[in-house]
Amino acid sequence: MTTALEHVDVLIVGAGISGIGAGRYLRTEHPSKSVVILEARAASGGTWDLFRYPGIRSDSDLHTFGYEFKPWRDKESIASADRILAYLRETATENDLDGRIRYHHKVLAAAWSTEDARWLVDVERTDTGERLRLSAGWIFSAGGYYNYDEGFTPHFDGRDRFAGRIVHPQHWPEDLDYTGKRVVVIGSGATAVTLVPAMADTAGHVTMLQRTPSYIVPVPKEDKVASLLTRVFGAERGYALTRRKNIAQSRAIWRFCQRFPGVARKAIRYLNVKLLPEGFPVDEHFNPPYDPWDQRLCAVPNGDLFRAIRTGAASVVTGRIETFTETGIRLESGQEVEADIIVTATGLNVQLFGGIDLTVDGRPVSYPDTVVYRGMMLSGVPNFAIAIGYTNSSWTLKIGLLCEYFCRLLRHLDDNGHDAVWAIADPDLPTRPLLDFGAGYVQRALAGLPKQGPAAPWLMAMDYHEDRKQVRHGAVADEHLHFSSATVRAPVSAVG
């Protein structure tokens, strides 16, 4: 007897902050639809369960990084991973999602059939190696933007000669004892500036070795205004007001940096000088060659990195690596940096959509040949939603808006008797890279990513207020969307 293929209305790929959020919106707005969340790993939480390195925390405030529908009640606005993880898992439980998450389920490929208006999804059980197949009306890709299996480490000459231990933050060993050891952290991004002060109290000394400086800005770990608003207006109203305040504040800072980069650079330098030891070579170690917000600003709660430098527990070295040696690292300048442990906080490997191979009516989907519609769909690919958050603000702000639009679009299909929708881009539409962002991990991946257009709805907007107009309050359908139903089938073009 043939076993019937299991079918779900919406298949969510990934049980991290985006996938749990999408599940909650669907359960609230479309309770009659069947929803399943596939998670390749053994636990939910995505980034916040994967990374285990010392001090891991958010680099955005939790009043905007948290969900709009669930107040962040912790007193710390810049929060540690364990608190964020507890918040996410509580959200899943409150919204009846625990039983809908299937762990050890990795999506390998998905094939769209226009005739059947469904995806056939190939899945691998990562714990047993078993292969299985599901049928889905929609796929919501919520797997984040980087490869969970492997972080990025550039080639370092002499690596095999180093007598100590080399670790990458994405695969932090549980048995790593750095007590009293000399630690070198290679990097200057969010991970590095988190690791250095977190390890400094225990290690013998921690050196942040950077090729290029980053903009590093102190932020309060606790939001005093948020606490006041919560006391006065209660948890929910206080959270909403704090969220609105922080959105306006981050938007104002970003716009100021874009409009007055020279003044912004001087302001950040002033804060650095104020918190660093007298006579510290600020322009050597904290003066990036690019303008503020060409790359993301690194936030350090209560200036902990600067405090570690002031006490002598940590130091900064700027230069290019020539080679690893038996006892550490030699720079092109000839300077030797001794180490017992080297941490390569050198970034991520970007991987959108979890590396899923997509086909539409037998034709492989080439991601670089697609254009993103409203930041949520790929041109020419039916019933496939994506979740990519902001690079210049809290990731979740964008995800919430996309989930709202997704639910509105599903209702539009139901109300009009449609079962499929896809976006079509004009072949002559001018395009540019998906993300206007200078970070190395983004630049390395741009050639393999979808494109964006010059204006809405093809623009990958990075402005929450503009997105609210277009995504939350704009019309659900426009001339770029094409619909299909069981009674009238129209072929999907290879590339919209």
From TrEMBL:
GO molecular function ontology, one term from the record: NADP binding
Pfam families xrefs: FMO-like, NAD_binding_8
InterPro entries assigned to the protein according to its UniProt record, in alphabetical order: FAD-binding_MO (IPR051820), FAD/NAD-bd_sf (IPR036188), Flavin_mOase-like (IPR020946)
Keywords: FAD, Flavoprotein, Monooxygenase, NADP, Oxidoreductase
Reported cofactor(s): FAD
Family: Belongs to the FAD-binding monooxygenase family.
Name of this chain's protein: Predicted flavoprotein CzcO associated with the cation diffusion facilitator CzcD
Organism, scientific name: Actinokineospora alba
